[in-house]
Structures are given as structure tokens and as C-alpha cells.
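Working notes for the structural subgroup meeting. M.R. asked for a predicted model of this chain before we commit to crystallization trials. I am recording the input and output together here so anyone reviewing the notebook later can reproduce the run.

Input as submitted:
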Amino acid sequence: MSYRLPPQKKIIGFSKLVDLISIFSRRLQIQERLTKQIASSIHEHLDPLGIMVVMEAIHLCMFMERPDMQNTRIITTSYLGEPIHQPKLSQFALESLHPESFGKK
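Returned structure, recorded in C-alpha cell form:
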């Protein structure tokens, strides 16, 4: 997760972000909605210039039903603000998270 605040804004501690993720992830829901809810909440409360939430998860249903897919990870993203208007910024962030997916090591 990444967010960019204007210079006059305060930042929050990492533990508060973890708490926010825990609150939303307790609900039964799909990963795409969870990713958007986290981004929307941070955008609403911190008013950053931009936010990008990238969520990677292993889904238990796939893990249990398909032994051949046990290493499959699902990645969802949600962008609000600046990352939407700067494709290079979004691409850089995704490449930083998973360089092997983009042919880099």
C-alpha cells in the first residue's frame, strides 16, 4: 500500500494501516471489494494526493480444491488520485512488488 500526502498533512503510523486492513478483512467479502474499501477509507480520511492499494492473497478455496494451484496468488489493485493520472508511477509500483512478473530479477 502506498499513499502520498501533501506537504502540510500528517502521516499515520504503520500500525494504524494494519488495524484498518484488519477491520475490513474480518468481513466476508470478495478481495476486489476489500481492496477498494481500504483505498477509499484512506482516501476519505487522510485526503492524500493519491493512493494505490495492492493486495496479494492465497485463496483457501483454491488451495483446498486444487492441489496443483497451491502456489497461486491473486493480486488486486485499487488506485485513487495521482496514480490514475501517472501510468509510469503505477507501473513502477507494480514492478517493484513483483519484478519476476515483468521479466526482471
